[in-house]
Write a structure and sequence with these properties.
3 helices; alpha+beta; two-stranded antiparallel sheet; 2 strands; 56 residues; 39% helix
């Protein structure tokens, strides 16, 4: 978080709260679906050096 000055914009709890709303659904037949990500969530994933989950 310090590499991209995220501590200046977010507390650790605020960052976790922003990413917590992402949901994963398992549909009948076993197909998994990830809820849609916001632009802000995708940006946070990239700033943290993590590949965002993709829609299946």
């Amino acid at each position: 978080m310090s590499d991209h000055d995220l501590f200046k914009k977010y507390t650790l709890q605020e960052l976790l709260d922003e990413l917590e709303v992402i949901e994963q659904y398992r549909q009948p037949g076993g197909h998994t679906h990830i809820s849609e990500l916001t632009k802000k969530q995708i940006e946070l994933y990239h700033l943290l050096g993590v590949e965002p989950p993709t829609l299946v």
